[in-house]
Specification:
By secondary structure, the protein is α+β, with helices and mostly antiparallel strands. It is built from 2 helices and 4 strands, in the order E-E-E-H-E-H. The chain binds zinc ion (2 copies).
Length: 113
């Protein structure tokens, strides 16, 4: 199994779900949100999810994982949606004063001495 080809992991058994692979999701909207994003590799994994959450009425929806290219595009889109601007730390390059007491031969040269 190529780790790089893993899209996500099953929310029940943690088996890798490959890009483009068939999988199942819960029909309940709160389980199916992009943030929650529960995915199951088999219907029986979804069944064990039911044992935990006890939905009143629910069923498994068959889905197909995105291809790696699609997924990467999606990730890029998410990053664009929340831009993180990092102010560049601009510090004046200051040179330390030349050592007086002990002359130290240093390979570092400082032009403003
Ligand atoms: Zn599973
Ligand atoms: Zn659910």
């Amino acid at each position: 199994m190529n780790e790089a080809a893993t899209w996500r992991r099953c929310s029940s058994c943690k088996s890798p779900i490959a890009f483009g692979a068939q999988h199942w999701v819960c029909n309940v909207s709160t389980c199916n949100r992009a943030r929650t994003g529960l995915v199951f590799c088999t219907v029986s994994c979804w069944d064990s999810h039911l044992a935990v959450v006890r939905h009143r009425e629910s069923w498994a929806l068959e889905r197909k994982a995105p291809s790696q290219a699609e997924w990467l595009r999606e990730q890029a889109g998410l990053r664009r949606a929340s831009p993180r601007r990092r102010p560049s730390a601009r510090r004046a390059a200051s040179c330390p004063p030349p050592p007086r007491a002990r002359p130290i031969r240093s390979s570092r040269t400082c032009s403003s001495w």
